[in-house]
Inverse folding.
């Protein structure tokens, strides 16, 4: 399968020294790719660089096989920005028609496409009203429709549900899944972990402008582990030795919870416990949700830094 | 590019600025026509031949002067946030990421706004000329070249303001353009005084201000084109005051203005092309 997005050492450095650095990204076509990171991690900078709003400081990249900024590639992408704003004087229908013209959509199908999209984003009765009269959530919905007007192959959604109510969020998640089913590539930039966990099959985590992890959710979960131990005969020396292996240790009576950087460290943990003369009654690797994974990755990166 | 010309025209016509401008222009023309009518009534009763020969052309130049002010203010206000405002609000994000070059965006917006301000300039110039013609019987010479030169004024300002809009934030751009415009108007008056008093320092100061911002020169050329100064023995009297033109600006000044506009547009295109958004 070809790559919808591929970057090599892509860097955008602002004068302040912030930005995104040395990003090596591979997003397969037809996948839903989630970009995670705390506020200020550099996610939006990366998205803006990919869609051509920012000029890279160094590095290269391709979008649908074409170099970044290539106009024919942009013909096939849709973009819903994080700080979405649209011409308040236009009606929703006019905005979609404008974006259709911008993307040179066949004029014979434009009206039909606009009606379909207005219905899809639940703005059927609002198409002929000025955007100035739309709520924030409705503006985000019309932005979503504008991003889809040219039936793009690759859709960048930067915090696409930030202004939506819970119903809107669920509908957007369903829409992303439908797009994925239709073979579209969705690049979802979000700090809503649940949203990413539900719809994305590939995830990358950013921290301080750098990619700290990338892969499928199952791969990332396998990368690190949280292990619950029940140990009798626990000594302070053993705890200190465990703390050297783990990135986090918590103890409550006989129960010890270890945060490991790698599942491969579990046998070493067993050896340490048994070797110390303590009795290991239980060892349960915990299945972690994305939030725990995310926090661990960020914590690990900060410790390395 | 056509889509941006189309959308810019539509945006201009929908904005409150356009409606307010039309209302103010209507009031202005009504006031001007009333003044002209009363002046004409007084002149009809007067036996002062010199006053009769001088006053109507003076009122005509005053009308063109204030019309140029209205046209300039409209052009600047319509353009001042054309690029910077959309960057500041974020509207430009989905446009720039589309399959269209930034050059086309800048030139399309320039084209769209220019069409509207040019039509406004044509309407205002023709309105003043027709009021003078119908109420006083005074015709003008070189209507078409006067009209074309008058129309160049707002187009030039749109070009310069749009260049500022790609480089500066909206407020800074507005202040800069209005300051330059004021400098040009003051420089124009200084040049007039320099010509009358034959003071080369004042004359050079006026020329220098025209080089920095040549809008006053455009206006003075319009005045020179519409008032027949060559064959009028009272030309000196007609052209005296802040609204007249003691000498006809050099044709090179028009060439300079066009080159200035071209450089401003090139600067706008280049600045926007390499700008991070």
């Amino acid at each position: 399968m070809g790559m919808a997005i591929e970057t090599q050492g892509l860097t955008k450095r602002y004068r302040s020294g912030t930005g995104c650095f040395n990003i090596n990204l591979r997003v397969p076509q037809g996948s839903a790719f989630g970009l995670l990171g705390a506020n200020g991690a550099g996610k939006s900078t990366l998205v803006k660089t990919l869609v051509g709003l920012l000029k890279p400081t160094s590095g290269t990249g391709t979008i649908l096989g074409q170099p970044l900024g290539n106009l024919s590639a942009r013909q096939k992408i849709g973009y819903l920005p994080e700080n979405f704003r649209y011409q308040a004087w236009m009606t929703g229908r006019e905005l979609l028609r404008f974006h259709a013209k911008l993307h040179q959509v066949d004029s014979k199908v434009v009206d039909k496409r606009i009606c379909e999209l207005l219905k899809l984003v639940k703005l059927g009765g609002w198409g002929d009203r000025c955007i100035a009269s739309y709520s924030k959530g409705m503006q985000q919905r019309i932005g979503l429709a504008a991003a889809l007007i040219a039936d793009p192959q690759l859709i960048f959604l930067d915090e696409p549900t930030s202004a939506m109510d819970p119903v809107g969020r669920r509908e957007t998640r369903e829409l992303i899944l439908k797009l994925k089913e239709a073979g579209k590539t969705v690049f979802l930039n979000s700090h809503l972990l649940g949203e990413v966990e539900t719809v994305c099959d590939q995830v990358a985590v950013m921290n301080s402008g750098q990619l700290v992890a990338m892969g499928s959710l199952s791969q990332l979960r396998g990368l690190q582990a949280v292990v619950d131990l029940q140990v009798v005969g626990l000594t302070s020396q053993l705890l200190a030795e465990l703390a050297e292996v783990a990135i986090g240790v918590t103890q409550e009576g006989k129960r010890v919870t270890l945060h490991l950087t790698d599942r491969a460290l579990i046998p070493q943990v067993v050896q340490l416990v048994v070797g110390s003369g303590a009795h290991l009654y239980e060892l349960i690797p915990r299945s972690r949700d994305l939030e725990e994974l995310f926090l661990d990755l960020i914590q690990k990166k900060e410790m390395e830094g | 590019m056509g889509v941006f010309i189309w959308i810019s025209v539509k945006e201009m016509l929908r904005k409150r600025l356009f409606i307010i401008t039309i209302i103010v222009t209507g009031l202005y023309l009504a006031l001007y026509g009333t003044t002209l009518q009363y002046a004409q009534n007084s002149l009809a009763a007067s036996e002062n031949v010199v006053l009769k020969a001088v006053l109507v052309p003076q009122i005509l130049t005053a009308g063109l002067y204030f019309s140029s002010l209205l046209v300039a203010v409209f052009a600047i206000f319509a353009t001042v946030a054309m690029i910077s405002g959309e960057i500041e609000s974020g509207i430009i994000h989905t446009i720039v990421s589309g399959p269209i070059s930034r050059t086309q965006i800048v030139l399309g917006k320039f084209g769209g706004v220019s069409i509207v301000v040019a039509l406004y300039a044509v309407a205002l110039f023709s309105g003043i000329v027709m009021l003078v013609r119908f109420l006083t019987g005074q015709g003008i010479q070189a209507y078409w070249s006067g009209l074309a030169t008058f129309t160049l004024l707002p187009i030039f300002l749109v070009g310069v303001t749009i260049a500022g809009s790609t480089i500066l934030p909206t407020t800074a751009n507005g202040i800069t353009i209005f300051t330059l415009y004021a400098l040009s108007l003051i420089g124009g008056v200084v040049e007039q005084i320099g010509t009358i008093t034959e003071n080369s320092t004042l004359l050079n100061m006026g020329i220098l201000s025209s080089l920095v911002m040549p809008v006053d020169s455009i206006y003075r050329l319009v005045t020179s084109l519409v008032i027949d100064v060559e064959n009028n023995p009272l030309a000196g009297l007609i052209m005296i005051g802040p609204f007249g033109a003691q000498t006809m600006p050099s044709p090179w000044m028009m060439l300079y203005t066009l080159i200035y506009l071209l450089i401003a547009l090139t600067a706008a295109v280049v600045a926007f092309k390499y700008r991070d958004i």
